Amino acid sequence: MKYHTFCIVAGSLACNARCAWCVAGMTPKNQVSDAKAPEIDVDSFQRACRIAEMNNLDTARITSKGEPTIFPEQVTQYLQLLQPWRFPFIEMQTNGILIAKRKPVTDEHLRTWRKLGLTHMCISVVSSDPERNRLNYTPREKQYIDLRKLIDDLHAFGFNVRMTLIMQRGDVDSPESLKQFMAFCRTHRVEQITALPVNKPTASRDGKLYDAAVKAALSDEQLREIHAFADKHGAVIATLPWGAKIYDIGGQNLCLSSCLTVSPDANESRQLIFLPPGRITTDWQYEGAVIYDLPKAAQKVIKI
Ligand code: SF4
Q: pLDDT of 151-175, one tens digit each?
């Protein structure tokens, strides 16, 4: 089996944001606990790293079924465990809010993470407009974070910044709104943008989230227009096996990703996923996609 991305799940199901269509809340829990971060079985984790190495993967991606930065010590632990594998790129997917607030993430964490090889911070947003992001991520708070300052800070600590733009109806849902978002990124020297539409699995464990995802989803026509804009104005840098395309548009890197999470080739899987303590799987939405699971009775864990 061939894999294209190596995803490492940090933290628990806990998240400080409240996206109405949270995809993590729709897919199976996959044994991730509600509040406490599960401990990591080192042997199982090394096994997953070895599979990634055998697939010549250049990137390890720390992500979560909630928000990884709620558990900064576990992020540090993963980065320490990744050291011997020497991945050229290690990225973390985050909503960025707790980094901007420096609580519980501190300057010291950011320095340590950079030193341990974290290269890319991938910040989820729905817009460059603070009020639109507030309404989506932190509707109960008066203010959303200062995104410009967060980008500048992350650059100052030595990270590349990728904006993970979730395209939803009413925010970025047309070539014009995508152009505006790209202009914001260009001004703030954001190295990369990955734009993907609000997504939903085939079956959801939460009906309310699913309904919100259906409501926020872009129409086929809107998606066609966005892709046509990128094809017309961009130079294609790469086409990824699951259909995503990377463009240069006026000097800005843009990856337009589709909803597809399953590789069209039967012998390929888009992702290799490690979930602590010791589960290795190949799909977010099908719990049966497990290729290895540390039996409960044999769980030998390390403390963080
Ligand atoms: S930031 Fe991510 S995990 Fe948190 S609510 Fe939004 S989609 Fe879900």
A: 999 999 999 999 999 999 999 999 9
Q: Look at residue 259 in the predicted model and tell me its pLDDT.
A: 53
Q: Which of 32, 12, 28 is nearest to 75 (CA)?
A: 12
Distances (CA, A) of 213 to 19, 163, 210, 217: 10, 20, 5, 6
197 touches ligand 1 (CB under 6 Å) = no
Residue 302 lies in a domain: no
Please state, in angstroms and rounded to a whole number, the distance separating the CA atoms of residues 136 and 177: 17
Residue ranges making up the domain that contains 247: 2-295
Residue 304 forms part of a structural domain = no
Does residue 207 have a pLDDT over 90?
yes
- How far is the centre of ligand 1, averaged over its atoms, from the C-alpha of 72 (Å)? 17
Q: Which atom in ligand 1 lies closest to the alpha carbon of residue 95?
A: 1
The verdict on residue 174 lying in a domain is yes
Mean of pLDDT values over 6-25: 96
* Residues 217-258 pLDDT 10s: 999 999 999 999 999 999 999 998 888 999 999 999 999 986
3-state class percentages of the chain: helix first, strand second, coil last, to nearest 5 = 35, 25, 40
Q: Is the CB of 41 under 6 A from ligand 1?
A: no
Q: What is the pLDDT of residue 266?
A: 56
CATH code of the domain covering residue 107: 3.20.20.70
Tell me how many domains the chain contains: 1
* Ligand 1 within 6 A of CB of 95: yes
Ligand 1 atom having least distance to the Cα of 166: 7
Has residue 150 been placed in a domain? yes
Q: Dihedral of CA 219/224/229/235: which sign?
A: positive
Give 88 Cα–ligand 1 centroid separation in angstroms.
27
Q: Is the CB of residue 96 below 6 angstroms from any atom belonging to ligand 1?
A: no
Determine if ligand 1 sits within 6 Å of the CB of residue 147. no
What is residue 268's predicted lDDT score, i.e. its pLDDT? 66
SS3 6: strand
